[in-house]
Amino acid sequence: MGDVNRYRHGNRQLVQVPVASATVIEKGDFVVLSSGKASTPAALKAQASEGTSKKNVLNALMQNFVGIAETPSASGDTDDILVDVSTDAVFEFTQSSAADLSFGDMVEIYAYSTASSSWTARDQSVASGSDNPVAVCVRDHDSAKGTGVLCRLLPQKLLGAASWT
Q1: What is the 3-state secondary structure (H, E, C) of the chain?
Q2: Does residue 131 lie within any of the structural domains?
Q3: Domain contains 130
Q4: Which of 4-13, 52-61, 146-155 comes out lowest in average pLDDT?
Q5: Count of domains observed in the chain
Q6: Is residue 2 part of a domain?
Q7: 94: CATH
Q8: Is residue 36 assigned to a domain?
Q9: What is the mean pLDDT of residues 106-110?
Q10: What does pTM read for this prediction?
Q11: At residue 49, does pLDDT exceed 70?
């Protein structure tokens, strides 16, 4: 699902973020920091030890969320990537499961499956939720009209973990 332009409008703020050489990041991926380097939510979740609670991992995803990758990084690349950290711009995200959303609703970068009683950290889709939000909806969304939802970022690593309240 690489090379996705999520930016729709507004002021942008791009920053350079270092990447570990083994890390693969695609344009449009959510970027979290792991040991001071860019990573994806799924990779950060995978690094958690077996005994780490779901709550602690999800909290770490939110607290280390930086923004949206504007440039990719292939395995072996050591160049910094550009990450959009703007809180003034509007981005379009894909929902991992259809849900109606209202202006002001929060979204998270993980999804929980009641069928399998498991959760998945998403690199490029969001789920409705306010426990560990990374973005806020800026327009009502009718799930019958598609899965794209317009949001503004809440990059906790830059704003502070509780700045969205």
Answers
A1: CCCCCCEEECCCCEEEECECCCCCECCCCEEEEECCEEECHHHHHHHCCCCCCHHHHHHHHHHCEEEEECCCECCCCCCCEEEECCCCCEEEEEECCCCCECCCCEEECEEEECCCCEEEECCCEEEECCCCCCEEECCCECHHHCCEEEEEECCHHHHCCCCCC
A2: yes
A3: yes
A4: 52-61
A5: 1
A6: no
A7: 2.40.300
A8: yes
A9: 82
A10: 0.80
A11: no
